[in-house]
Specification:
197 residues; alpha/beta; Rossmann fold; 6 helices
């Protein structure tokens, strides 16, 4: 089985990225990481990626006069590297419709809520304030709408009495680490089944 060439986009420490890279060390895993890209040159996840012998590239968005020119540089690196599938792992930039359409059906994201509940930011605080009995995380296809793409997989955690956004976030993050490698493997199989354009 030919493994899909994986790019991971990050903005910070990349704890979910690290779980993906660990999963990819198994030769039977359906993805092979070929590049990690960050929009921040100081993202600690870049050195983590290099520790896995994966090419790590900083493309600081502040160096570009428009979102399009920034994304064009990302796209150039992705195409140059022959990427088949993209995983967003704490990439804190909203992508333009043009970039999303170029990679439609080949780009996934992890989000710390049970989508369609709580797209966007402050998901844990919003779940607690709403009185939800459970929270969790979702891996979904990236579409033009923020956190609106079809869900690939979800994992749930109970909201406990006395939970704060911080304590809930810590428990959800552990679930994210377990969920994302499984969901990426599932996404790879779905990409493989699509007719090539």
């Amino acid at each position: 089985m030919k493994r899909l060439r994986l790019a991971i986009l990050i903005s910070g420490r990349g704890s979910n990225m690290e779980q993906l890279l660990k999963a990819c060390q198994d030769d039977a895993y359906p993805a092979q990481p070929v590049v990690v890209i960050s929009n921040r040159a100081d993202a600690s996840g870049l050195s983590t990626a290099r520790g896995f012998n994966v090419r790590a590239v900083a493309i600081p968005h502040k160096n570009y006069e428009s979102r399009e020119s920034f994304e064009n540089e990302i796209d150039r690196v992705l195409c140059q590297t022959g990427v088949d599938i993209i995983a967003l792992a704490g990439f804190m930039r909203v992508l333009t419709p043009g970039f999303v359409s170029r990679w439609a059906g080949r780009m996934i994201n992890i989000h710390p809520s049970l989508l369609p509940k709580y797209p966007g930011l402050d998901t844990h605080r919003r779940a607690i304030e709403a009185g939800d009995k459970e929270a969790g995380c979702s891996v979904h296809w990236v579409t033009e709408g923020v956190d609106e793409g079809d869900v690939i997989a979800q994992s749930r955690v109970p909201v406990k009495a006395g939970d704060t956004a911080g304590s809930l976030s810590e428990r959800v993050l552990l679930e994210e680490h377990a969920l994302y490698p499984k969901a990426l493997a599932k996404a790879c199989e779905l990409v493989r089944k699509k007719p090539s354009s």
